Amino acid sequence: MIEIMVWSSKEIKKKGLTCLNKNFIQAYLVVLVIRLIADIPALFFNQGSSIRSLSLSGSALLLAILLAGTIFIYLPLNAGKNRFYMDLNDGSAEFDTLWHFFTRGKKTYLSIVKGMTVRYLTVLAGGLILIVPGIMQYYRTFFTPWILAQHPDMTAGVAMQKSREMTAGQKMNLFIMQLTFLGWIALCFFLSYRFSLILPTGIGRAVSTAIYALPAAYYHAAVAALYTKLSQHLL
């Protein structure tokens, strides 16, 4: 029988903030780099006229490049980000951890790529069927990227099963914790909007990304603290 851990958003966010304060600059830069890389596709698609002028084969090639970049660059970086925040929660973290899975050999790299891809495809498949199954699958496998970051040799199937065990009875609590960050997101949206009115498009987007990275760092620190708490008896 799976033991359901008791926790509150206030408790977890306090632990996350405490960890974040230990090394805020590096924690912020890790998230900023991730968000800047995630914004690259938007730079392409913002050039509407240029995209429309591409041939069918050209558009297909562009999409293939962006998909490959997501799978082989962004997902391993995302796992490295998770690893950084877990290290931060344990008391010591280095910015270089962001590139962790690019430096651990071909086997580990391909294992993390496969595991992360399978998880996101599973969530996507659930969402394509119906919205509710997609949301449920998202929360069931919520900790899969974190489990894989800590145990990169674990298969995606095993990691997702561990995540299901960790999130049993916790899905609503997870949802509520995410809702508590809405105030920060609203503030960032307001600031980003104001800057977008007075800055050129490219600079405005960069400033917006930098602003949103602030609550994102807080959020990831909180999730790392929660992961540590819920994984104690399962991993």
Compile the SSE list and pairings.
Layout: H1 9-22, H2 24-38, H3 40-45, H4 48-52, H5 56-90, H6 106-129, H7 131-140, H8 144-150, H9 156-167, H10 171-179, H11 182-198, H12 201-230
Shape: globular
Mean pLDDT: 89
Low-confidence stretches: none
Q: How would you characterize the largest beta sheet?
A: none
Question: What are the secondary-structure elements, in order, as H or E?
Answer: HHHHHHHHHHHH
Helical content stands at over 70%
Radius of gyration: 19 Å
Number of helices: 12
Summarize the structure in words:
The protein is mainly α and 235 residues long. It is 78% helix and 0% strand. It has helices at residues 9-22, 24-38, 40-45, 48-52, 56-90, 106-129, 131-140, 144-150, 156-167, 171-179, 182-198, 201-230. The two termini are 15 Å apart. The model has no long low-confidence stretch (mean pLDDT 89).
Which key terms come to mind for this protein?
235 residues, mainly alpha
The gist of it:
The protein has 235 residues and is mainly alpha-helical.
